[in-house]
């Protein structure tokens, strides 16, 4: 975590901190109170450490994971698990006409903030005969 002293000496970061404190603590903690002498440095440190990952300051500090909160990461993990479960269920219950190459690779995980995007494969649409073969017809 970057030191609070460095944040207070940077005008842009200090502005982000001020807005985050007002938003997060519903106006009960104001950075101007620190400069007025009515907010202790200890309390300001505690408020800074309590800022959510989605705050402006965390995003400005370059924390790519700050774009998503815990809820978004949790939902993404659940969706990845559901995709794998569907893939596994299809692989177990596959009909004889489906090529084994279809089941060789599980679905790709959803890209999280801060990760590089994987190259998207080209999607090819089959004709009616391919679909009929897929379902064992």
SSE arrangement:
Layout: H1 4-9, H2 11-24, H3 31-36, H4 41-49, H5 56-60, H6 70-92, H7 128-134
Describe the structure.
- The chain is mostly helical.
- Helix content is 51%, strand content 0%.
- The chain is built from 7 helices and no strands.
- The chain is rod-shaped, with a radius of gyration of 25 Å.
Summarize the structure.
With 137 residues, the chain is mainly α. It is 51% helix and 0% strand. The chain folds into two domains: 4-67, no CATH class; 70-134, no CATH class.
Number of strands: 0
User: How do the SSEs run, as a string of H and E?
Assistant: HHHHHHH
Q: Which percent band covers the strand fraction?
A: under 5%
* Number of DSSP helical runs: 7
Overall morphology = rod-shaped
Unreliably modeled segments? none
Return the domain count.
Answer: 2
The mean pLDDT is 80
The major β-sheet equals: none
- Distance separating the two termini: 60 Å
Structural class: mainly alpha
Q: Helical proportion?
A: 40-55%
What is the C-alpha radius of gyration, as a whole number of Å? Answer: 25 Å
Task: Describe the structure using short key phrases.
mainly alpha; 137 residues
